[in-house]
């Protein structure tokens, strides 16, 4: 039973994604997906949260469009969920943002207030308030911001006294500290691209365990938090199409997670039809090389009148409670066998 737990569309993620959401769902059905989570990015709240691509022609207009677009996405996702129910099991979620801790209450409100939202992907795309996966220039800007904040807090050195290696180490430490705050606050059941910080790194394949032991301690701490509340790590194959040699998370982190008894879910993090199931076979090979035998997804169990759930939501006399989510284990062999992929489509 093939699936993805993380996807985007050009319809609701304009600028860096492509294609209409319904066309993406139909393509997923054609290639054998039995479950698909629709998880567009959540809206952001201030002008400083905008990416460079959103600044032209009007930053305020871009910001004002985010919440209406989010609500339109939820409406369309529900329509597709019903229309294609006999062909694919659609889950509805959104990908969280954590540029600063103030986003915690906002994320919880977005989740609680909309009964159709099944889960939230806990992701970080920022450190020290600066995007770390947009381009190399912004990654270096984030490193400088993290170094400046560290120097101000420690009062022991100037950020200019740090080498480039030390500056980047400070950025990684900041990333995992902010991730810890997000995990502790939200306890997201799906943790997206856990080590996204390595995408723009000067050495994405570095062995953090020996080079930066303080960073490794933070990584193990964060994994322990996730394991403690029963969350899943996403094995995200988008790292492969972006030029990395291993999916998120890399081998050292994945091995540590397995030692903890942690569970993996699986995602392409697609941004359009061309990226659905991209590098899925390589991702499955990677997991098998680690000794992983199964992946995890959800099955929605709609709420029936007279039943109760743990996530009641306010309504005007209508049933606005969330569906229950059953955890479903999918053997890797079954997942692989269900894919209908032609040529080298998954190796793009």
TrEMBL record:
Pathway: Amino-acid biosynthesis; L-histidine biosynthesis; L-histidine from 5-phospho-alpha-D-ribose 1-diphosphate: step 8/9. Transmembrane segments: none annotated. CDD domains: PHP_HisPPase_Hisj_like (cd12110). It comes from the Eukaryota. SUPFAM superfamilies: PHP domain-like. InterPro entries: Histidinol_P_phosphatase_HisJ, PHP_dom, Pol/histidinol_Pase-like. Keywords: Amino-acid biosynthesis, Histidine biosynthesis, Hydrolase. GO terms for molecular function: histidinol-phosphatase activity. The keyword Hydrolase applies. One of its GO terms (biological process) is L-histidine biosynthetic process. Residues 5-238 form the PHP domain. Signal peptide: none annotated. It catalyses: L-histidinol phosphate + H2O = L-histidinol + phosphate. Pfam families: PHP. Belongs to the PHP hydrolase family. HisK subfamily. PANTHER family: HISTIDINOL PHOSPHATASE-RELATED, HISTIDINOL-PHOSPHATASE. NCBIfam families: hisJ_fam. This is Histidinol-phosphatase. It comes from Echria macrotheca.
